[in-house]
Design goal:
This protein has five helices and ten strands. By secondary structure, the chain is of the alpha+beta class. Strands 1, 2, 3, 4, 5, 6, 9 and 10 form an eight-stranded antiparallel beta sheet that branches. Strands 7-8 form a two-stranded antiparallel ribbon. It starts with 7 loop residues before the first strand and ends in a 7-residue tail after the last strand.
């Protein structure tokens, strides 16, 4: 029997992410690009969604246009979301958000993370992650200030009007430790 810390494939019907805590407390790292070519970039994301859309399991992530990862999401068809709850790695993920891949191309290696091939998509996952969600891009859209019903959100979150784009991905595979499996 596998222990709680042993990683294993998790079927979508048994995947339990903790819908509110997964994004903020467990530190999710979004990566897009290709592992094989070494062309990929990562950034922390603190908001997103897991669920079902158009009859398929889906993940939605939000990225501002000035982020380097935005460029990779536009060019490459896959992305991964990796979760870290160990305090050491939470700090690493936060640091990755403050360093641009444009300025420091090897920021992931410098941070001490080990990219490895994902099982189903071209974007990498990380050996140190306790959760890896592999996605294929399905659709993208862009938030627009005109569409906000609560205008205070625009003033609070978008003073520079640099609205997030969102990417919807089909979840192809999930790997993780026991705490992500329904009991």
């Amino acid at each position: 029997m596998l222990g709680k810390r042993a990683k294993r494939p998790i079927g979508l019907d048994e995947f339990d992410a903790g819908i509110f805590s997964i994004w903020n407390r467990r530190r999710m790292l979004l990566t897009s690009g290709e592992f094989v070519t070494g062309m990929f970039n990562a950034m922390p994301v603190s908001s997103g969604f897991f669920g079902e859309l158009w009859g398929v399991p889906a993940a939605i992530v939000f990225v501002r246009p000035q982020r380097r990862t935005f460029e990779f999401l536009e060019e490459y068809s896959t992305f991964t979301l990796c979760g870290f709850s160990d305090r050491k790695y939470q700090e690493v993920v936060e640091q990755l958000g403050s360093v641009s891949g444009r300025d420091v191309p090897d920021k992931i290696a410098r941070a001490g993370l080990t990219p490895v091939a994902a099982k189903k998509v071209d974007a990498p996952i990380y050996r140190e992650a306790e959760l890896a969600v592999e996605c294929t891009r399905l659709c993208r859209g862009k938030l627009d200030g005109r569409n906000f019903f609560l205008k205070s959100l625009v003033e609070e979150h978008y003073p520079d009007r640099d609205y997030h784009s969102f990417y919807i991905g089909r979840i192809e595979a999930v790997t993780g430790i026991g705490k992500y499996v329904k009991e």
